[in-house]
Specification:
14% strand; binds FE2/S2 (inorganic) cluster; four-stranded mixed β-sheet; binds flavin mononucleotide; alpha/beta
Length: 642
């Protein structure tokens, strides 16, 4: 494809691509994002290629590999157009049936459809599935339509139109003004207004300036940046080039986690294609504007996603944070003004330029405009990547989109904002999700992680888990964070092991305040959130652990015990055979009993005991479990039996 030299040429190329495409031609799209890849979408693709060839349908049907559709737990996902028939959990041996029944015969295969967990109804069309129905997929929506390795797919959907408009119709100041008016807030954590940061870099002295994409994404459970970069890399790139023009930067970096091989690969292809088409390099679209991009692969440390640490890593040094006496927007990489934004922040920019700030301002809340991609995981029926307008309530996200809590369990809390976020209890389920509302509750938006917890979750143990993660990931450079986090983990571990003392809660609160005040970077200053929010909303659980050595949720292994009830046990041997550590004694007709000194509290016996017998119970305080049986106790004869 020859280089495109002007906005007019870009339109001509787009029309030419569209003229080659028949919107009514049957099209099979297959998700090839990382999750679907892991569950076999590569094999499913190969099966489609073979089957289409076998039936001589290669020319009559388009087969396309796309980016992540968001509903990863149901992958590999296949969507057939123009009808938009959605098949989930597709395996290679389903492929001949899909071609024969659906493509050739026009019949739906019920077995591969989504079953609504609430109504039990089978849903045929992807957009009717409750997981998708209540979303507004502004940024993420094209992921499922685009082959990320084919720039023509992006161009066909209006790709690089915003760049052409920027370079041909707008001055850098006008672009900056539009982004400021749109009030795009950074999606990487702090929610800092992008326009203001851009302006700081633009106004900083010096000719050399940098723009950077933060695709480090170290939050456990979050993968929206990876999926966007993997599935629609040109969208991020287009936003970056527009930002570079507004700021006056001619060189950009994309900092991307090494553990994201598919994203790294698709990005490399996108960069090559963007250069070939003339969207990168010298004199872009004949505007006189030059811009190049370099990819920097991150070594996978959570703290290296922090702005100063990331820039230090790009300089080739250890990715540790430094004090920000001067903002990185003024003095960043090699002391030059460096504007860092998150993947999703950059991806918002083409929409702002194409549709204008007024349009953008109509989506979201007063203080948080646009949409947010959320990684919805944990104890919720539908897990995956969800995009909603800012201001959507937690309840709508968890119940309407997420389909509620599995197994009829009760909702307990939702942790938002990644490991440094806070846990929000049930009484705040109607809170609109935006930057400010979540902060008011002692949590944060962070990068958009959302972990749902049910009644079987111990909130002290959850705080211990997140603080342990942060302690492991602390770079150790500043004392409050390094030592404070270690002490917090020690105290929390003691509490979960029944060794907590009066005064521990207050000590934790003191340490939290110390970290907030004295840490070098936001890893330390936000680390208090999981502790303070759980103390605030679930203080009784802390007290129960400390005073009564009881874990009300029955999670903390040092405090709980499993017990086989003599009167209910039928000596069926199921738990006996399933116990991974051989802690259960007994035999056929000899009642089973758990040796508490061997038991690891894995709960397998409770899971496998037939509901008809219901003989295993869990005690939330181990001292309350009755004494084990004398060895060899026989099954008591049941009434009415000889
Ligand atoms: C410990 C730590 C890790 C971070 N990791 C990321 C990350 O993986 N991705 C990201 O975009 N921002 C991350 N941030 C936030 C960045 O420092 C920075 O605020 C952000 O990239 C700026 O982009 P934005 O304004 O578009 O949000 C992290 C911050 C801290 C303190
Ligand atoms: S990777 Fe296929 S739906 Fe996410």
């Amino acid at each position: 494809m020859p280089r495109i030299n002007s906005p007019v040429e870009l339109e001509r190329v787009r029309e030419e691509i569209l003229s080659r495409r028949d919107p009514n031609k049957p099209r099979i799209t297959l998700c090839s994002g990382t999750a679907c890849h892991a569950t076999g979408s590569g094999e499913v693709y190969a099966a489609f290629v073979e089957e289409l060839k076998k039936r001589g349908l290669e020319q009559k049907i388009d087969l396309k590999r796309t980016g992540c559709h968001g509903f990863c737990e149901k992958g590999p996902i296949v969507v057939i157009y123009p009808e938009e028939i959605c098949y989930l959990l597709v395996q290679p041996n389903d492929v001949p049936e899909i071609i024969c029944q659906t493509i050739e015969g026009g019949k739906i295969i019920d077995r591969l459809l989504y079953t609504d967990p609430v109504t039990d109804e089978k849903i045929t069309h992807e957009s009717d599935i409750s997981f998708y129905k209540y979303q507004n997929r502004l940024i993420f929506g094209n992921n499922m339509k685009i082959d990320p390795e084919n720039i023509e797919d992006y161009l066909a959907l209006g790709g690089y139109k915003a760049l052409a408009k920027t370079l041909s119709e707008m001055t850098p100041e006008q672009v900056l003004e539009e982004v400021k008016l749109a009030d795009v807030r950074g999606r990487g954590g702090g929610g800092f207004p992008a326009g203001r940061k851009w302006e700081t870099s633009r106004n900083a002295t010096g000719d050399t300036k940098y723009v950077i994409v933060n695709c480090d994404e170290g939050d456990p459970g979050a993968y929206m940046d990876r999926s966007l970069m993997e599935g629609n890399p040109h969208l991020v790139l287009e936003g970056l080039i527009i930002g570079a023009y507004a700021i006056g930067a001619h060189h950009g970096f994309i900092y991307i986690r090494q553990e994201y091989p598919l994203a790294v690969g698709n990005l490399a292809v996108a960069l090559r294609q963007a250069e070939e088409f003339g969207f990168l390099g010298k004199n872009i679209l004949d505007s006189g504007f030059d811009f190049n991009v370099e990819v920097h692969r991150g070594a996978g440390a959570f703290v290296s996603g922090e702005s100063s640490a990331l820039m230090t890593a790009i300089e080739g040094k250890v990715g540790e944070p430094s004090p920000k006496y001067i903002r990185t927007a003024v003095s960043g990489i090699w002391g030059k003004p460096s504007n860092l934004n998150n993947v999703e922040t950059w991806a918002n920019i083409p929409f702002v330029i194409n549709n204008g700030a007024d349009w953008y301002n109509n989506i979201g809340t007063e203080g948080s405009k646009g949409t947010k991609i959320i990684s919805l995981v944990g104890k919720v029926n539908n897990t995956g990547l969800v995009e909603v307008p800012m201001g959507t309530t937690l309840r709508d996200i968890i119940y309407k989109i997420g389909g509620g809590i599995p197994g009829g369990k009760k909702f307990k809390a939702v942790q938002t904002g990644g490991p440094s976020g806070g846990c929000i209890p049930e009484q705040y389920l109607d809170t609109p999700v935006d930057f400010d509302e979540l902060t008011k509750l002692g949590s944060m938006m962070g990068s958009g992680g959302m972990i749902v917890m049910d009644e079987d979750t111990c909130m002290v143990d959850i705080a211990r888990y997140f603080v342990s993660f942060l302690a492991d990931e602390s770079c150790g450079k500043c004392y409050p964070c390094r030592e404070g986090l270690r002490q917090m983990v020690r105290i929390l571990t003691d509490i979960t092991e029944g060794k907590g003392k009066e005064g521990d809660i207050e000590l934790l609160e003191d340490l939290c305040n110390l970290l907030k005040e004295g840490s070098l970077c936001a890893l330390g200053t936000t680390a208090a959130n999981p502790i303070l929010s759980t103390i605030k909303y679930f203080r009784d659980e802390y007290e129960e652990h400390i005073r009564n050595h009881r874990c009300p949720a029955g999670v903390c292994k040092s405090l709980i015990a499993y017990y086989i009830q003599v009167e209910k046990c039928r000596a069926c041997m199921i738990c006996f055979k399933s116990c991974p550590v051989e802690a259960i004694s007994g035999w056929l007709r000899t009642i089973h009993s758990i040796d508490q000194t061997k038991c690891t509290k894995c709960g397998t016996c409770l899971e496998v005991c037939p509901p008809l017998y219901d003989a295993v119970s869990k005690f939330t305080k181990k001292e309350e479990a009755p004494c084990p049986l004398a060895p060899g106790t026989k099954v008591p004869r049941r009434k009415g039996k000889k």
